[in-house]
Amino acid sequence: MKYKIFSFKELVDLGHDKRELTGKLLELVNITLDDISSDSVGEIDQWLPILENIPECCKIIVETKTGKIVGHWFFTAIGEEMYKEAIKGTLMEINMTIDNVELLDKKGIYYGYFNQIEILKEHRNPATFKMLIESFFEQVEELSKKEIFFFRWVTLAASKEGEMISRSLGLQYKTDHVLDGKIYSGNIFTMANLKVLSRYPQLVEAYSEIYERVIDET
């Protein structure tokens, strides 16, 4: 099987209805996470404005022969207060909206929240995982060129597969979420043992400078 990575905007430009596409991404979450609560998934009307207005926040993997969406990652940039909720395991994704996440329209240092990262079981293999992870680091590198950085990353792993992906990304267990799964967190340097990160030396250098600056200012 062959696969290709697209942004949300690219698929809309190719003719996908944006509401239906958002629904398919949420359906993908529900398929891969059987017992997750609706408060930890969210709704179309909640996520669509974010996907539309923050094009950097999502990449989607498509099987080229059938056009089937088989995986994606989706993150939001959040402020310090929301990060504190997330790291304590009390943040409800249903409460995240275009009005309270960061738009990534200006330079700065943010916190990153992985809302979703999954691949359908029948398409889960080293090649698709590699494509998804590389596309994430490519996006983070592009944002760093615009002087947009992420001090720490946090995610809710609501399945055994989610925990495995979190650990493979160098994220570390912090606590249980009040409703679903476990909270994992880390930064670009806890991910530094990933072989893929060695392909982005400029990204590592840029983040080294940012962390030195933050330490000097505290």
Could you walk me through the main structural features you see in this protein, from its secondary elements to its overall organization?
This protein is α+β, with helices and mostly antiparallel strands. The protein has a single domain, classed as Aminopeptidase. The chain is 39% helix and 24% strand. Strand 4 (108-119), helix 5 (126-145) and strand 5 form a beta-alpha-beta unit. Helix 2 (18-32) packs across helix 3 (44-53) and helix 5 packs across helix 7. It starts with a strand and ends with a helix.
Task: Give the rounded overall mean pLDDT.
Answer: 90
For this structure, what is the CATH homologous superfamily?
Answer: Gcn5-related N-acetyltransferase (GNAT)
Number of domains: 1
Number of strands: 7
Radius of gyration: 16 Å
Percentage of residues in helical conformation = 25-40%
- Secondary-structure element pattern, one letter each: EHHHEEHEHEHEEH
Number of helices: 7
Range of strand content: 15-25%
The CATH topology:
Aminopeptidase
Outline type: globular
Beginning-to-end CA distance, first to last residue: 50 Å
CATH class: Alpha Beta
Largest sheet: 7 strands, mixed
Going by helix content, strand content and strand pairing, the class is alpha+beta
Widest sheet: strand ordering: 1-2-3-4-5-7-6
Give the uncertain stretches in residue-range form: none
The appropriate CATH architecture is 3-Layer(aba) Sandwich
